Structure formats: structure tokens, C-alpha cells
Amino acid sequence: MSQKTRLKVRVDRARCQGHARCNALAPELFDLDELGNAREIGDGSVPAGLEDKAWLARANCPELAIDVIEEQDG
Amino acid sequence: MSPRPPVNDWERDFDHLDPRWIENPYPIWDELRRHCPIAHTDRFQGVYFPSRYEDVRAVAYDTEHFSSRRIVVRETAPPRQPAPPITSDPPHHRPAKTALLPAFTPEAIGRHEPRTRDICRELLDRVAGKPGCDAAVDYAQEIPVRVIAHMLGVPEQDGDLFRKWIHEVLELGITDDQALARASAEMTAYFSERMTDRRTSPRDDLISYFVRARIDGELMTEQHINGTLRLLLIAGIDTTWSAIGSCLWHLASHPADRERLLAEPKLMPFAVEEFLRAYAPVTMAREVVADTQVNGCRFKAGQMVLLSFPAANRDPAVFSDADRVVIDRKENRHAAFGLGIHRCVGSNLARMEIRVALQEWLARIPAFRLDANGAVKWSEGTVRGPRRLPVLFG
């Protein structure tokens, strides 16, 4: 991965069933609502150093509800 | 249980109550996955058994053809007894589930963790000085029953009653309609009395929460709440006790994993997920309500489908080293709590109970092994876990 790549996470709210794995594995990136369903925090931008947690969350979502988007800087 | 004709053909005449399936189903499922990924039996008035993750997912997602109005495969179809939301289909499912969810978020469940930890310690106090114990009877089965009693706001001793009902519904009830009806009537009487009490003097407990909860602005009917409470007992107790028991069985028989968990306690959350994958306790069922096809296989209306999340979780197409327990597995989309709209409402509770039960056990009894003089006995029916698990300490 080049240094210029930045990650964004996004939860597909229609697919999320509230397994809450993303919030358990990456609470810095995913929040839960009052029903326990997930949403990305803020605009989903992944701070430097938390990239592995973004991929980990995606790799543990049973509903395939998490997208990790790679964006090129500049 | 009546004597059952032995199975000679798992592809066309399987029986999930066969002693070989009860003892060790994994090799049977592996064979089926390779040669007949959607098996069928004429027993139980006709049942399909998909063993691949992909097909289990397809059935779980297709609520139009596969209804949850019957979720247990039995010898005869009993009168339907709704236990919403688990027995609900769209459009009734979502509002019924939404009413429950706030009481089961990780945050709400976290409030019960201190009591859960105390329960585990009290149980360990009783056995820790002995040479060994039955980890299923003396420990695993006692935890969820006491935790759910605590959450419902009833005396923890009533757990004995809960366990009797669960046995009658989930084990005897598969072949004995009278046992099922008797247990249901007793549960309804027990909970109706407590609902009346909570309406006049509400407390900070789940029964009080339910009698005040609304669906589309309306209070839930007493019948609905009774169904939901029946669900919490039946779905929330022997499932979790089976999971805790399977975890302890694994640690008793795999000393390297046990030692690694002791040395690296941060692995615990990953280990819990891996145990849930490899030893998922719950097989659900669906009723086919309209003829359809899944991956080229015809499903006929009126028959049942065993929805085996445990078999899906062993599918090598989705999990590398599917038959090996890898306690630090990083990619783990296991289906132990179901897939789709019926995701187990108590998943956060179960995860907390399993984690706390293992942490407390390992803190008090770091070394233990299977007792070669005692036999491990596995449950019968669609919730799999050890019912007897004799272990020796040290």
C-alpha cells in the first residue's frame, strides 16, 4: 500500500444486522446506535495507524456490510 | 425417545437424532458437503439439510420462501406457538425485534457483567478445592440460567424450574407433544403472574421493560410478552451453557491452546469467536412455504429445512483450516448467531457470558483435563453442547 493511500470505512445500514463485531474490534471507527446497529464514526476516514483495524472489522462482518474504500491523496 | 431406524444413507435418509450425529456430526457434514451439499430425509415429514455456508446463507436470507413460523424440526408439527420475534416473518418481525434490541446492546449487556462475574466466582468457590468437577453440570449450565434470572428480576433459584422447562421443550418435546404442552402452560402461568406484579410495581428488570415496551405505539399483548419470555428462556439458556461447555471441553482436551490463552489473555476475544465458529451450538429450522430452488436443488413447500449454522461454520470454502480450532483466527465471518434478519438478539449477552465464564475459570483453575474415567455426554436435539463434562484439576 502506498503512503498516499487513505482508507475510509462505510457500513451498509441495509445489510447490518447488529452483530457488533466491527464495534468490538475497531471502536475507534465504528459506533452503535440505540438498537445496536453499526455506523461509521464521522465520515468514515481511518486515522493513520488504524488501517489494520479497518480491514479486521471488514473480515469479521458476517453480513458483508462493511466497505473499506481506498482513496488516493491529491 | 422411541427407537429410531438406523441411518444407512446420510444423503437421502439423514437423521439428526442418530447417535452418530449426536456424538460427532462433523465428519458426516464434511462428507455431505463434498458429495451432496443439500441432503434430504423423509423422516420428520420431510427435511432438507444444506451443509455449505453459501446455501445456509441463501436460505437464511430468503424469508419469502423459508418461513420462521416453525423453527424446530419435530416428529409431528405441533400447534404453532409464537415466540416473537424468532417465529416472526416480515413484516411483523422488525417491529417485534426492534422492541427488544435496546435491552440487548453491548452497552446494556455490559451492566450485567459484574453480576455475571460474581456468579462465576460463586460457582468456582464450590468446586475449586476438589480434585475435579463436572464442568457442564457444576459450572456451564448454572451460569446463563442465573444471569437470565437476574436480568428478568426473579430469584436465581428459579433457574431449576427454567432448566426443567428447557429440557421438556428442547429435548423431550421433539418427540413428546405432551411434555411440550405442559412446559408451555407452566411457563405462561409463571410469567403472567410476574407481569401483573410489574405492571403495578415496576422495577429495573426485563419483565418491567417488556410490560412497558411499545410496538408501533401499542403496548405488547400479554400473549406476545409470554412468547418473547419463552423465547429468552429457551434460546438464552441452554445455547449459552452449551457454548461455555464446548469451550471448556476444548480447553480440557487441547492443553496448548489453554496455555496460550493463559499466557496471552488478549487473545480471549478472538478465541471466543473461534470457539463459536467451531462449536456453534445452534441449528435453527425453517418451513418451506412456497416451492423454490437453491443452487439448483428443489425445495418443496410444506417440508422443513434444518438451518445448520454449525455446518456452515465448518465449510472450507469460507474458512481456511475449517476443521482446526485456530484461537487467534483473524478472518472470522462465522454464522453462530445466524445470518440475516434473525440474528440472535442475545448475541452480545452470550459473548459476554462466554468470555467472563472462561476468564474466571482460567483464573481459578488454570490447569485441567478430561477425566479419563468419566464419559462426556453430548446433548440431543438441535442445540449441541456437552451435558456431562467430567474434568480433573491440575
Short recap of the structure:
The complex is a heterodimer of chains A (74) and B (394). With 74 residues, chain A is α+β, with helices and mostly antiparallel strands.
Structure description:
The complex is a heterodimer of chains A (74) and B (394). The model of chain A has no long low-confidence stretch (mean pLDDT 94). Chain A is built from two helices and four strands, in the order E-H-E-E-H-E. Chain A is an alpha+beta fold and 74 residues long. Chain A has one domain: Alpha-Beta Plaits (2-Layer Sandwich), CATH 3.30.70. Chain A is elongated, with a radius of gyration of 12 Å. In chain A, a hairpin with a 5-residue loop joins strand 2 and strand 3 (38-40). Chain B has one domain (19-393): Cytochrome P450 (Cytochrome p450, Orthogonal Bundle), CATH 1.10.630.10. Chain B has helices spanning 19-23, 26-35, 53-61, 93-100, 106-110, 113-127, 135-140, 142-152, 159-171, 177-200, 206-212, 222-236, 238-253, 255-263, 268-278, 309-312, 347-364; strands at residues 38-41, 47-50, 66-67, 132-134, 214-215, 218-219, 283-288, 292-294, 297-299, 304-308, 368-370, 377-378, 386-388, 390-393. In chain B, strands 1-2-10-7-3 form a five-stranded mixed beta sheet. A three-stranded antiparallel beta sheet of chain B has the order 4-14-11. In chain B, strand 12 and strand 13 (386-388) form a beta hairpin. In chain B, helix 6 packs antiparallel against helix 8, helix 6 runs parallel beside helix 17 (347-364) and helix 13 packs parallel to helix 17 (347-364). The longest helix of chain B has 24 residues, at 177-200. The relative contact order of chain B is 0.18. The model of chain B has no long low-confidence stretch (mean pLDDT 94). The chains are: A alpha+beta (74), B alpha+beta (394). Chain A binds chain B through residues 17-21, 23-24, 32, 34-36, 56, 59-64, and chain B through 98, 101-102, 104-107, 269, 273, 330-335, 337, 339-341, 343, 347-348.
